[in-house]
Fold this protein.
Amino acid sequence: MPYKKNLKVSDLGEDYFIEKVTKGLIAYKDVVIGAGDDCAVIKTSDKKKFQLLKTDSVVEGVHYLSSDSPIAVGYKAMARAMSDIAAMGGTPHHALVTLIINPSSKLSYIKSLYKGLSKAAALCEISIVGGETATAGKNSKNSITISLTGSVQKNQCCYRSKGKPGHKLYVTGKMGGSIKGKHLKFTPRITEARWLASKFTPSAMMDLSDGLASDLPKLARASRCGYEIDVESIPRSRGSSIKEALTDGEDYELLFAISPKKAATLESDWNNLFSDLNLTCIGKLQALGIRKPKLDGGWQHF
């Protein structure tokens, strides 16, 4: 896209915008992965582990409604960041909470937000260790930003970028239904992702936050691959169409690629351990440039 002096963010689209503003960011030798994956990956003094860093925001009117339960909103804010730690095969540890609050907000509402934050944090023994509070301005919307640390064994860290043509593509759970409230009561797949990372170490993995139609091409592109999927095989939430399963977004399930040599053992072991959670093969990675079918839609901020 040619440069224009008065170009607006809305003219670019989210992916192109992020690519441009993160290109050339300063990063020293301790940075394994910076911008571009589900989390930043940092070297530490522990030679066997990496540190994971994640920041995620929910904004009133974009990610939730003012009429939604504040407990559910707080839960979602924390669980979203936890889902990204899961996508790297990691374990979350410490959280900072930044609240941008309209001055007219009631104290009882804020306290309920923190009940929801704590509810999600308790799932993985995450410590909430502080943060920041600022005014949103008299007529502005509330927002919550979570900064979350985590850790992962170096040899188990899962990236988006290691997939290869022929590797099978799997999703956990079911797709679609966020508009019906699913986006406020999902379970981040920390346990399942840690098991996957320790036993099979997927060649590429990410969480599904923007919808399969948006996220699958991101994973394939990061791995310098194409893809081929059977849309009829996509597991759908009750009442969701194929289009909704592809584009609703906010599923917070795992999408990952794995060598076909490991597939049979993976499916058998998964069914023994996680029989209450679907694991579905939806296709495979292909040579770069192959997109069957071409996917459109999913969530874009800009």
